[in-house]
Amino acid sequence: MHTLEQLRSGQLEGTTHLALSEQLTHFPEEILTLANSLEVLDLTNNQLSHLPDSFSQLTKLRIIFISNNCFTELPPILGCCPNLEMIGFKSNKITTVDARSLPKKLRWLILTDNKITSLPEAIGNCIHLQKLALAGNALTALPLSMKQLVNLQLIRLSANALTAFPDQLLDLPKLAWLAFSGNHFNRHQCVNNTLPNIASNDYQLEKVLGQGASGVISLAQWRSNPHQLDNDIAVKVFKGQVTSDGYPQDELNACLKTGSHPNLVASLAQVNEPHYLALIMALIPAHYHNLGLPPTLVTCTRDTFPAGFTLSINAIRTIVEQMIDVISHMQTQGVAHGDIYAHNVLVDDKANILVGDFGAASIYDDLSPEQQQKIAAIEWRAVGYFVEDLLSICHTQDNNTALYQQLYTQAQGYISA
């Protein structure tokens, strides 16, 4: 994090990345002195509501984050930045997205948790757009022009007010990660609840094991165990009313509807109390670890892996076979995971996997047969990309084998379906 004092004194001359968080109420014009170098600007956690016309002087700017501020519209001046590719205005008060605010090179647009009721038809002209995060708004419909977004790979539409499923998305050739729960056409579907309800005071939370967009997972110990469940447990306590993926209740419902599978993290019980929603899960054995790392600003929608990490072709086959079985099981239950990624998969040294994180999951078995078929195809495309990513870290000596070619062909079949 930088300071205004550093900026004004000239200490930041030539910097490519600038981050300021000082409860700013006006855009600091001193930022314009970095116009010849600045590529990434982060003004998250301020009180800004306006960008000046002079902002267009930042001709080298590629990425801007202005989350947790006070904007009521996406600034039209953004469209005048010739190299701007990534825009993040999460958790503002935006109601309006002006067509002029969409730069020609736009690849990644984050507008989660605002008050947007509609998008301009001009969004269909953003043909480079790969990632679009719109969860937690008030959208009632999407522009028909979005059928032109031939490079779109990920879209988050959960927790909006869509009155019908947006069919214009279903034939996009690269779309693989789709979340749409919590809209008017499907909000909080009723599911058969086979998990016991317990009280939050039945257990004691201990150390945090991990957290994501929708909640915090902690090791826990029973204070009392009224249903005689496993002794070794973890508890996911959901965050707030809406997350970057949607409503916690929809995540819980999708998890309940999916049921049990050997390669899914086992759900044991739930807590559903006022202002407190939690899922009790079997504790994952310590010898499991994350298969991958999340996408970066560069890879956008594709996973990354630790430097030097490789897998044998036989291990990849074992992982893929299990993933196919998981997805087949979920589709039988009418649930799309929506976030099939290596970073959402745990693996052990024998290539056994556990799939988790249902934050982007959607129940779709109440849609038309044609819609269901196309949603299933989108999910299989994600599996294809997942296989591609694993093959990218295959042992060098294995990548010319018949098995490698078989898996590669299988992946391409999923992707092009």
| Secondary-structure-derived class | alpha/beta
**Helix and strand pattern:** HEEEEEEEEEEEEEHEEEHEEEEHH
The largest pleated sheet is described as: 8 strands, parallel
Compute the average pLDDT.
94
Taken from the alpha-carbon principal axes, the silhouette is globular
**How many separate helices?**
5
Strand content: 15-25%
Overall number of strands: 20
Helix content: 10-25%
Residue stretches low in confidence (pLDDT < 50, at least 5 long) are none
Overall radius of gyration: 22 Å
Record the strand order, biggest sheet.
1-2-3-5-7-8-9-10
Q: Distance between termini?
A: 45 Å
- Seen as an oligomer or otherwise, the chain set is single chain
